[in-house]
Design a protein that fits this description.
36% helix, single chain, 8-stranded parallel β-sheet
Length: 369
């Protein structure tokens, strides 16, 4: 069994037993849909010391992964639920010139549980992240997972995770049980995030089964990008971004389809709209310009040049999506060579390092940047 790193407080001792239900099996085969590793990519070699800061990287602490499997999550968005350990993460980072990973919990967060179980599992994950950072402060950062959609419990965990554990920011899903970020039900949490000038990574959520199109393809292939777009659009049109401009939102996977749809998303400005939108008058181009966009699974010029049409290079950050991208990243050297089709070497260093560290003062201080 792989070493799982520093031992956090035991979740098993503090939460009620989870109910095991029938595990899903057939979707494991979806891994075959991933693009094969190219020979050129596999042969790539690292140049110099690791420098990349990975802003879209996930971790699955032991009790968290066990809880996922116990509740039928053998796939996440159609991708087989991966194995993870600090040692495996560092081996991956070493192969691809990544100096530090800012770890977050992926979909479904802890929202597959409720009440005390969700609160305790969120706290377990956050304490695990904090223990990793304490052990390796220049190797790992961490974003707090919250027991959403319970707003009261989430605010309490936010205070604990940022004020006591000193995590680097927060990860939120694009939606919870079909309710998107920007919904007024989440307003108290947004106010608390804004008060802390929080960095918030918006990660897509799987489409609920009741709303899922009958297509034989996994969510991560395309639905994730659409869910990110829905959340970003709702954040803009409900006035959340205008009311709370100090929250720094990072959108996964180059913003989903936001850059491509930027002009279209602004067409509705000036129309007569229902409350609360017609009282907001959002500046859609400015809001889109203010998002941060990561490169995870989106380094191609078609994505990156679209991003640069709507925002500056200083709002692009590197992301690997590991270990959920593991089947496409089995070589070494340059993890995203396609970035060079859009950025010069100096610009890549800005995207892959400097932009992230400007948003992460704790990690920047640890790295003496």
């Amino acid at each position: 069994m792989a070493d799982t790193g520093p031992t956090p407080p035991s979740l098993a001792a503090s939460r009620a037993p989870v109910t095991r239900r029938t595990l899903l099996g057939a979707a494991i085969a979806t891994s075959a849909t991933l693009a094969p590793l190219t020979a050129a990519h596999a042969a790539a070699s690292s140049n110099g010391a690791p420098y990349r800061i990975d802003m879209h990287a996930h971790f699955l602490p032991p009790d968290y992964r066990n809880a996922l499997l116990a509740h039928g999550y053998v796939t996440i968005g159609g991708y087989p639920t991966p194995q993870w350990s600090p040692e495996r993460a560092q081996e991956f980072m070493g192969r691809y010139g990544i100096q530090a990973q800012v770890l977050s919990i992926s979909d479904p967060g802890v929202s597959f549980l409720s009440g005390d179980q969700a609160r305790q599992l969120a706290q377990y994950c956050n304490e695990y992240a904090a223990s990793l950072i304490a052990d390796k402060p220049t190797t790992f950062g961490g974003l707090a997972v919250l027991p959403m959609p319970d707003v009261t419990a989430s605010i309490a965990e936010l205070k604990y995770a940022l004020d006591h554990l000193k995590l680097d920011g927060v990860v939120l899903l694009s939606s919870y049980n079909g309710v998107y970020l920007g919904d007024l039900r989440f307003e108290p949490l947004m106010a608390e995030l804004a008060r802390r000038n929080a960095y918030v990574f918006v990660h897509p959520a799987a489409v609920p089964a009741s709303n899922k199109p009958e297509l034989p393809l996994p969510d991560f292939l395309y639905e994730f990008t659409f869910d990110t777009t829905r959340a970003a659009t709702n954040l803009m049109y409900t006035g959340t971004i205008k009311r709370y401009p100090t929250i720094r939102f990072q959108l996964a996977h180059a913003g989903g389809t936001v850059p491509f749809l930027a002009k279209r998303l602004a067409l509705i400005n000036g129309f007569s709209l229902p409350d609360p939108v017609n009282k907001v008058l959002p500046d859609i181009p400015a809001h889109i310009r203010g998002f941060y966009y990561d490169t995870a699974l989106s380094p191609a010029a078609s994505a990156m040049k679209s991003v640069l049409e709507v925002t500056g290079r200083d709002h692009v950050v590197f992301g690997s999506d590991w270990p959920f991208s593991e089947l496409t990243l089995q070589g070494k050297g340059d993890p995203q060579p396609q970035l060079s089709d859009t950025f010069t070497s100096a610009q890549r260093r800005q995207v892959e390092r400097s932009n992230a560290l400007r948003q992460l003062p704790r990690l920047a201080k640890a790295l003496h940047d």
